[in-house]
Specification:
Blueprint: E1 9-13, H1 20-28, E2 32-36, H2 41-44, E3 52-57, H3 65-76, E4 81-85, H4 93-98, E5 103-106, H5 119-130, H6 140-150, E6 154-159, E7 164-167, H7 169-172, H8 179-182, H9 187-190, H10 193-209, E8 213-222, E9 225-237, E10 243-252, H11 254-270, H12 272-275, H13 279-292, E11 298-305, E12 310-316, H14 325-328, H15 330-339, E13 343-347, E14 356-359, E15 372-376, E16 381-386, H16 394-456, H17 464-489, E17 497-500, H18 501-510, E18 518-521, E19 527-530, H19 532-548, E20 558-564, E21 572-579, H20 607-618, E22 621-626, E23 632-643
Parallel strand pairs: 1-2, 1-3, 3-4, 4-5, 18-20
Antiparallel strand pairs: 6-7, 6-10, 8-9, 9-10, 11-12, 11-16, 13-14, 13-15, 15-16, 17-19, 19-23, 20-21, 21-23, 22-23
Helix pairs in contact: 11-16, 13-16, 16-17, 17-20, 18-19, 19-20
């Protein structure tokens, strides 16, 4: 019901005093407000019926809006009832409306209503509308006219035989007839015969099945140019549910589709960058890509020359007699390279000489298109673009940025690969020098030593000086062997293979002067993946190290080899070499692997250094611990198992 009075009369049924802020807003707006509880609403209300009644839906306080609604309905008669919900999580507006509420307004649990959003005005308008005192909406005809005039899409309404009843203003711009003239036209009048037939059959199918077409992108050619439109169509029905035509919308998506097509073309063309192996190849490929894609303007690749310490043009997409993009906008190329931020050059001239200024992209004003762009390529240089039409459009900028990212990624990959190749070449040179060193050790030292040892055997066995000479020659021989081993370690470990560890341990033991020492090999060593010759050298040095440090001839040394626990969940394990000798003091454990370190009278200081070097070359680790109950234990871990028990 309504009232001729200007003031709105509202009764708020508020059992828990939760609507105080709403009361304040209504009173500030000059409206008459009373608050009551549901039971006393009729008794305490004003002498005349209110224009509307507001009931509370407050889930947190167990004040159920639907129960409140029905309780008030019994006393309210024809007075419209509005439900205020302050529990958004339990909002049931549609249910309340179906139960008879004139409106449902959700205001939130904390009543935090922003004055800046003009909520009080909106609140009064909604209550007045519920009470029948507000302004009514426009007529159906006026609303439809608004849609047709202002919606920036092509909108059309047709009858069941495809005749146009009305079209939006945007759609009219696509055709010659006026709004009045086009009424009654069909697609046969607007398009070629084949397209008109296809559209008619399609719309008949829509009415028969009731299935709409939603956002279908269609391609067509107009005046020799590719165009795309996104179309939606749905059936229309009369009051009896009989289909009486179709309603549809169409919007031009040519710009978006054109950008998508160009972007796909750019990505496809950028695959050519993968095959480029040098900076020059990459630069020329980038230029070729830009020339094949219409939306990318003139491109110039400027890379940093380390030798000259300056930016230099490597490839350009314009003719030789044209002004270089780099020369024209050099200041902003340098700024882009030094700051790592793209520079968007904007013309500020009104005519005559051009005055330009460079900005970061975020500082370019809306509607101002750059005349040139300099995009950094990381540490490699700059990719520059100059417009051939006077300025860039948004699609051109997007394509330029994608191409720059692809070029930078390719340059970085090429730089990494070149660094790897340089490292490999340096290692090859080092290995050549080590081979030369090994040859010198093998030939120029071993031959004289062999001659000296031959003559030393002719000395009298009782001659103490002869014994010293023999000892010195033996030591020189061992040093020669160990230096030769170290020289080989400069080379990458050779081919690895499946090696029976127990058999290799026994072979290494046979290659060492063991005196009275004994060897025991535990079960479960299995097979490992290793360079067998290098593994033999490693084991021989461990055995020799143990024997050299066993000082008590009356207590023969016992050496043992066995498996260590496999790494959890990995195909790697290890083995140990232990002895029951005197062990290594804790303060010397870290130093024993250093080159030249020894505390044995005839030690060379290379044995354990060689062990460490050989283990590292295989990717293994070596850990020195104490054996149980005494002695030394070396554990080698991280070893790939070929079939490790």
């Amino acid at each position: 019901m309504g009232s001729d009075r200007t003031q709105l009369s509202v009764v708020l049924v508020d059992p828990v005093d939760a609507l105080g802020e709403i009361v304040r807003m209504l009173r500030d707006a000059g409206e008459a407000v009373e608050t009551v509880d549901a039971a006393s609403m009729v008794r305490n209300a004003s002498s005349y019926p209110p224009d509307c009644i507001v009931v509370l839906d407050h889930g947190a306080e167990d004040v159920d809006g639907e129960r409140q609604l029905h309780a008030v309905e019994q006393r309210a008669g024809d007075v419209p009832i509005v439900v205020f919900s302050i529990d958004p999580a339990a909002y049931t507006g549609p249910d309340m409306l179906s139960e008879g509420a004139a409106d449902v307004i959700c205001v939130g649990p904390d009543m935090a209503i922003s004055e800046e959003r003009d909520f009080p005005t909106l609140l009064v308008r909604r209550l007045r509308h519920a009470a029948g005192m507000g302004e009514s909406f426009q007529t159906d005809s006026e609303l439809l006219s608004s849609v047709m005039e202002y919606l920036p899409h092509q909108v059309f309404i047709k009858d069941d035989v495809g005749r146009i009843a009305t079209m939006s203003n945007v759609a009219m711009h696509e055709h010659e007839p006026t709004q009045a003239e086009i009424q009654g036209f069909t697609d046969h009048d607007l398009f070629d015969t084949e397209l008109g037939r296809e559209l008619y059959e399609e719309e008949q199918q829509i009415m028969e099945t009731g299935e709409p077409i939603i956002n279908r992108v269609e391609h067509y050619v107009e005046n020799g140019q590719d165009k795309w439109a996104s179309t939606t169509k749905a059936p229309r029905y009369d009051e009896d549910g009989t289909p009486v035509g179709v309603i549809g919308t169409s919007r031009n998506v040519t710009d978006q589709k054109r950008r998508e097509v160009m972007m796909n073309a750019l990505h496809a063309a950028s695959r050519d960058l993968v095959t480029a192996e040098t900076y020059d190849d990459i630069a020329q490929t980038a230029v070729d890509i830009a020339e094949d894609i219409p939306d990318i303007p003139v491109l110039e690749v400027v890379l940093y020359d380390d030798a000259n310490e300056e930016l230099q043009t490597v490839a350009t997409g314009h003719s030789a007699d044209a002004t270089s993009v780099f020369e024209r906008y050099e200041e902003w190329f340098r700024r882009a390279y030094e700051t790592g931020t793209g520079q968007y050059v904007v013309s500020l001239s009104d005519g005559g000489d051009e005055a330009v200024v460079g900005y970061a992209k975020s500082n370019v004003s809306d509607g101002v298109d750059p005349v040139a762009v300099a995009l950094p390529l990381g540490e490699h240089g700059v990719l520059g673009f100059a417009s051939t039409s006077g300025s860039f459009d948004e699609a051109g900028l997007d394509l330029a940025e994608v191409l720059a990212a692809n070029v930078e990624a390719t340059l970085s990959r090429t730089a990494r690969e070149e660094a790897i190749r340089d490292r490999e070449r340096e290692l090859a040179r080092q290995n050549e020098r080590l081979e030369e060193f090994a040859s010198i050790v093998s030939h120029d030292l071993r031959n004289p030593l062999s001659v000296a040892q031959g003559y030393a055997e002719m000395f009298d066995d009782d001659d103490s000086a002869a014994e010293e000479v023999r000892w010195a020659l033996d030591r020189m021989t061992r040093l020669t062997d160990e230096l030769l081993t170290l020289a080989r370690q400069g080379q990458i470990v050779g081919e690895t293979e499946r090696v029976d560890l127990a058999a290799t341990v026994r072979e290494a033991w046979q290659g060492v002067e063991t005196d009275t020492a004994s060897l025991s090999v535990a079960d479960g060593l299995g097979a490992i993946t290793a360079d067998r010759d290098r593994l033999l050298e490693l084991l021989e040095n461990l055995f020799r190290n143990a024997i050299e440090h066993a000082h008590d001839p009356d207590d023969p040394l016992a050496v043992s080899v066995g498996p260590v626990d496999a790494d959890a969940g990995q195909n790697t394990g290890g083995f140990y070499v232990a002895d029951d000798g005197p062990g290594i003091p804790d303060d010397q454990k870290e130093a024993v692997f250093e080159q030249g370190y020894t505390n044995a009278e005839d030690g060379t200081g290379f044995g354990l250094y060689i062990v460490q070097t050989l283990a590292d070359a295989h990717g293994w680790t070596v850990e020195l611990t104490d054996a149980d109950p005494h002695g030394t234990r070396f554990e080698l871990r991280g070893i790939e198992r070929a079939s490790y028990a």
